Amino acid sequence: MRGMCLQICCGMVAALLALGACTGCRLTPSPGLMACPLPASEQVQRVLKVAPLGTPRDEVLKELETAGVAGSFGENQSIYYCDIWKQEDGSRWHINVALLFDENGLLYATRPDQSGRATAIDDEDPRPAGHIAPPTGFPGTDDPFQGS
Asked: Which tens digit of pLDDT belongs to each residue from 99-142?
């Protein structure tokens, strides 16, 4: 009987240790992720207060982190997807704001745009026309690898 109690006790300890490892050893539950109560346009405006247009990429990341905004880059770091915004009360909002960076690493636009309109990223480029590099590889361009 004593051996069985020891086995049960060891099993319970092992189960508690495994549970602690799975939950990150947190003793208090973390606040759940909730949908952001703000409309898209307000989400964008609040993110732009933290990191205004024209801000360099590294500074944007620093300011977002300080403000509690977490996210991730796309493949080539030209788009940063803001996903979670930790609030002062500990709640975490799921937000949906993409920050677009130009070839110099400056923040030039958001999606949704500042009015909250959800446009495709390739739909419209708000940069001045002279700011866009001309396409290459098409007949009539100065591409040295394009056959005549």
From this structure: 999 999 999 999 987 766 765 544 444 444 444 443 434 444 44
For 10-65, how does the pLDDT look when each residue is reduced to its tens digit (9 = 90+)? 555 555 555 555 545 444 445 689 999 999 999 999 999 999 999 999 999 999 99
Distance from C-alpha of 17 to C-alpha of 15, rounded to nearest angstrom: 5
CA diameter of the chain: 91
The answer to whether 63 and 50 are in contact (CB under 8 A) is: yes
If phi > 0 it is left, if psi is from -120 to 50 it is alpha, else beta; for residue 24 that is: left
In order of their start, the domains of the chain are 32-119 (3.30.2060)
- Is the CA virtual torsion 88, 110, 33, 68 positive or negative? negative
